[in-house]
Structure formats: structure tokens, C-alpha cells
Amino acid sequence: LAGFLVELADAVHSLDPDHPFLYREVAEFNFDELRMALKERIAQDKDERSWFVLGLTVYDTGITGERFEGVLNRWLSSGWDRPALIAEFGVLGLSRSDRITATPNLLNKLKKYKENFLGALAYVWSTNGPEAVDAELGFVNNDGEAVDNRLSLIGRMWLEEAQAEQIREGT
User: Fold this and answer.
1) At a CB cut-off of 8 Å and minimum separation 6, what does 101 contact?
2) pTM for the whole thing?
């Protein structure tokens, strides 16, 4: 399977060389086979495939984000030499008020690893999605109105980070 994924990525990239290729997998997936197949192909043709991005799907079940951070640590120790993307994340089984606390906690964990991760995409936008869990994890209702203040919290977090970055860079 891993060799096929690298071939598939190469084929897609040859058709659309101006965009990255994102392969998304659950965090529990063993990435060793894929990492080795990618390294072998790089050794063969000397193309580093900087456009190849691995996306991790990570769900936690607690407010503190311990499982989420465990996945981040596992990624760092896995031997991959390129950044990854948290392609989907969320907190399952919590009350809405606890999710309001947990979501920023997860993103704060990710900030510690910003050299190794491109960012994170929250699941799911709407409470009216095709999966039952969408009603629990959605950020907005059918009318596009926020169901709680997670969106504004996340927005403030990223704005504060961008402002701090500008101050550090003197811009």
C-alpha cells in the first residue's frame, strides 16, 4: 500500500504540480512503511517531494488534550523529516461547555510544535453535516450562526499569535 501511495502522489503531482498533495490518515496509523517507501523513492530520483504533506486525524476525549499531545510527540519521534498537518481534530464525548475549554487547549498544545506542524483543521464546520457526530462537533448551525464561542476563541488565539509574530519580527 505504501508504495502505491507514493506512486499515486507522484501521478497526481504530475497532473497538478502547482499544489501540494495531502494524504490524510488516522493518528494511530503506523507511518513507518509509508515513510520508508517515500525515502526509497527520494533516494531513487532525488526529488524531495516537498509538496507531499501527511495529514493526521486526531480526536481527544478530554479537556486537557493529553492524547492529542501524545500524537504530536509520537509524530516527532517517528523519523519523518517533514512537517505534517493536523487534517482533522476534535474533542468527543464532552459537554458543549467542556468543548469550549478543550478546543483552545488542543491548539495551545500544537503551538509548542509549530516548527513541525503546518497547522490544524477543526472538524466539523456545521452541525448539519452527514455524520451523527457533526451535531456534537459543529461550529455553526444551519443558519451559519456560531453555536458557542469556540470560533471567536480560536480567532482570537490566531490573531494574538500573528500579532506576537509581527512584534518579534519588528513588522
Assistant:
1) 63
2) 0.83
Q: What is the DSSP letter of 130?
A: S
Buried b (16+ CB within 10 A) or exposed e, 147-167: beebeeebeeeeeeeeeeeee
**Interval 75-91: pLDDT, tens:** 888 888 888 999 999 99
Which of these, 169, 166, 151, lies nearest to 107 by C-alpha position? 151
Question: Residue 129 CA to chain centroid, in angstroms?
Answer: 20
| CA dihedral of 60, 65, 71, 75, whole degrees rounded to 10 | 140
pLDDT tens digits for range 102-159 = 999 999 999 888 889 999 998 888 999 999 889 999 999 999 999 999 999 999 998 9
All three cell numbers of 61, joined, read: 476525549
Cα–Cα nearest to 135, from 84, 90, 165: 90
Contacts of 99 (CB under 8 A, 6+ apart): 91, 137, 148, 150
Q: Which DSSP state fits 60?
A: E
Cell of residue 58, nine digits:
486526531
Instruction: Locate 165 and state its grid cell.
Output: 509574530
Determine the Cα–Cα distance for residues 54 and 67; give it in Å rounded to an integer. 19
